[in-house]
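Q: I'm writing up a methods section and want to include an example of the input and output format. Could you take the sequence below and give the corresponding predicted C-alpha cells, formatted cleanly so I can copy it straight into the document?
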Amino acid sequence: MFNNLIKEKIKEIDIFSPYIIVIFGYLAIFLLAVPYYYRLVYLTILKLFIIVSIFILSFTLPFFIIKNIKINKYILYGLLFIFSFYGAYYSTNSIFLSLIYLIFLFVVIKLYKKLRDKKIFTDFMFYIGLMSFILLIIKYHAIPLFDYNVRMAINTEPLRLISMGGLIYGSLESKYRVIISFILLTLMGYKVGILLLVVSYIVYKKIKRNLFIYIILLFIVLNIMGWTIVYFSPQNWKINFYEFLSYRAYFDLYVFKKIVESGIITYGKILFTPNGERLIGELLFNKNVNYTTTMFGTVYMDFNLFGVVIAFLIGLASKILYEGDRKIYAIYSALLLGYCEIGINFGFLVVLILMLTANGEIDDKVYNKNTKGI
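A: Here is the clean output for your methods example:
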C-alpha cells in the first residue's frame, strides 16, 4: 500500500514544473562536468552539491506549502516601475529615456492582455522577429554566428532582443515556424535563443513522447554551436567541439567553488545592481568580465546561506507563473533552465517581475489552475 501511495505521488509530479526544471538543469551541469572532476577536489564537489540541494529545497517549498497565492497587481506595477526605471537609468543615464522605456513596457502589457488570444497578434510577433533579424544582418553586413566581432557587437542590440523575443513567441503555435526560427536563431549566434525556443515549445506543447531524444539533440546542437562560436573567435581554446558543454559546466562549478571558498559576501550588489555579476570577475579573478556560476551561485555570493530566502521567493513567483498564463510560463520555464547555468542576476529579476505583472493582468478565472500541468 505504501509503495502504491509513493507511485501515485510520483505520477502527480509534472515534469514541466519549475522545480523539476531547476533540478534537471543542475543535474545536467553536474553530469556534464564529470570528465573534469579530476580538476576539482571530490569533497568540494560534494559540498557544492549539498549547498545546491539546500537552495533547490527552498525553491521547491512554495509548491507544497502554499496554495492559491496571488500578488496584488498594483504592487507588481510598483516593483516593475522601480526595477525597470533603475535599470534603464543605470544604462542610459537619462530620466527621459527611462520613462519612455517604462511607458513602452506598460503599453506592451496592456496590449498582451487584450490581444494574447488573437492569431493576428501571434503572426505580428513572428513577422516582427523575422524583419528584425533581416534588419540586423543588413545593419552589420554579416551573419553573427560566423563573425565574432559582430556577435559581440549585438550583445545589447535592440534588434537582436526584439528578433529573439518575436521569433520565440510567434513560433509556439506552429512547428514550421519553430524550424524557421531555429535556423535564424542559430545564425544569430547566441545559444540562449535556441534554448529558449526549443524548451518553450516543448513545455507549451507538453511534449513527453521522445522527450529524451529532443534533449539529446538540443545538447548536441548547443555543443556544436558553442564550438563554432569559439572557432570564429580570436580565443585559443584547445578543446574539441564535443567537449565544449562539459568544459562550460566544469567552469561554472569551478566559479561556484571559488565563491564558496572565498567567504566573500556582497550583500545584494550582484542581484540588485544592473550588470552586478561583473563583481564576481572583479573580486575573484581581478577581471572586469562576467562569469557564469550556476543559478544560485550569485545568490550565495550575495547572502551566503541566507540566500535560501531569495530562492524561496523566486520559487513562490515561479509557482504563480506556473499556475497562470500558458505562453508566459512556457517562455519563463525556458528562461529558468537557461539561468541554471548563467546565475540569477538583475536582468532575470526584471523579466520575472515583468512576466508576473503581465500574468496578473489576465483573468485568473480563465487561466488559473486550468493550465496546471502544462
